[in-house]
Amino acid sequence: MEAGNKIGSSAHPTSLPPPVRGGVSSGTLGRHLARRLVEIGVKDVFSVPGDFNLTLLDHLIAEPELNLIGCCNELNAGYAADGYARAKGVGACVVTFTVGGLSVLNAIAGAYSENLPVICIVGGPNSNDYGTNRILHHTIGLPDFSQELRCFQTITCAQAVVNNLDDAHELIDTAISTALKESKPVYISISCNLPGIPHPTFSREPVPFFLAPKVSNQLGLEAAVEATADFLNKAVKPVLVGGPKLRVAKAQDAFVELANASGYPFAIMPSGKGLVPEHHPHFIGTYWGAVSTSFCGEIVESADAYVFVGPIFNDYSSVGYSLLIKKEKAVIVQPNRVTIGNGPSFGWVFMADFLSALAKKLNRNSTAVENYKRIFIPPGMPLKHGDNEPLRVNVLFKHIKEMLSGDSAVIAETGDSWFNCQKLRLPKNCGYEFQMQYGSIGWSVGATLGYAQAAKDKRVIACIGDGSFQVTAQDVSTMIRCGQRSIIFLINNGGYTIEVEIHDGPYNVIKNWNYSGLVDAIHNGEGKCWTAQVRTEDELKEAIATATEEKKDSLCFIEVFAHKDDTSKELLEWGSRVSSANSRPPNPQ
Known about the structure:
- Helices cover 36% and strands 16% of the residues.
- By secondary structure, the protein is of the alpha/beta class.
- The strands form 3 sheets. A 7-stranded mixed sheet has the order 9-8-7-10-11-12-13, sandwiched between helices. Strands 2-1-3-4-6-5 form a 6-stranded parallel sheet, sandwiched between helices. A 6-stranded parallel sheet has the order 15-14-16-17-19-18, with helices on both faces.
- Helix 2 links the parallel strand 1 (44-47) and strand 2.
- The protein is globular, with a radius of gyration of 25 Å.
- Residues 1-25 have low confidence and may be disordered.
């Protein structure tokens, strides 16, 4: 188990942070909050100003280790905090009361679904207005200020409404520590008149809090390991499959330890891509039912025992509930529970503890790896293009694959990029993120902003469809303003391709934009930004060469024109199965 007092991805929290110079915010709520954010690893806060949060923003700006990044809208500020949390371990955004809070809701719901600790801070009404019959602006016209809070209660793990300085310290610290312990977003509302008022509870330097480590029930751990080892050691060709909850359990290293010790082949569920090393000799690809990596699905589904570590089985990851997995053959390892076949089940057994202990008890068995090597045939190359032939999407991703290194990270937008990016074999230390559980189109623009701001050592390569880009395009402006150097491939195919393959209709056709022209207008000669339009493979090669050499320090936006029906074969298969699941008739009454 990783150290329980590791907060976010910051330095060891027991070391005192340096004092803020100037004393403007000393001993105040605003300064306390700013120092807490720095302490847990947040160096950048994404915000949209509004009259209820302006004083709070002054105090965040006064913190020298905190960088306030103004976004074009609250939705993108939330998406940016999501992307930042993926790279840093925790993220934060600040918006204003109700009009800002309700705008950021969708992004916070996505962070909740992906188990990301995002601190969502809202500037609230003046503390004197609570408990009165007054009607305030930015509300729906009722003297009830709880509408925003009620909306956040279902998509955050803790909520704090700070309208009294006496308990402000406790409320703020409890919310932040809960976000880190639960790995979920929290909501903190702070009355607009409180950030700058000194109060005895806010010492000059906040005392760092300690997150107690989660320790497995030792007897339960031993019983779970013994039962699982007995189950797996009897199997002829067992396999491992990693899932998205490896992240929240902080068990990636323990997973690799188990793979090394057992000799089993291992695959990754689509929503877990990027959490296991794909350069490992026993990695066999993505297990995604009927749209799995070639030969991977066959090895997993023909195994006589499979260990799913941190899985989420939903309609998308199961390809319309069509996985050929039998419960009696499965060991399901969740962050704090292990279930073997149809039973037994062991609670308060933590994933990393369990995997490390199990690695020491398993007999080495490489039968499934050897079977995989017998049937494996390397993937083919796209057909050779003719002169001036329109660019095909599979050719585009062949070139994107060649761009990847340990200094890059891939952000895949909801849509066909899910499937095309899933086929990219990631080199060592290459990052990878997408939002599969929530699947909100437009997520990737804000997430690219946040991830690139957090992981400045990597160059982000974002693959975004035109329909998704239209939802959140504005914050390309913020990327330029922050001096980011991401490469955005905008795939212009005239509509919502993923939805076409689930259920087609005229609503899936969108108004075409001059996307590169739009980004040029946003650039407006300020900052470093370069755009290109490509229609052929030769133009693509030239654009990639420019983006990676001459314009390597600029934000690069490459608009790729593709035929509206040019999709991956995986999307065609997946779309038909999801469509079938969506259209099931009601059960007879």
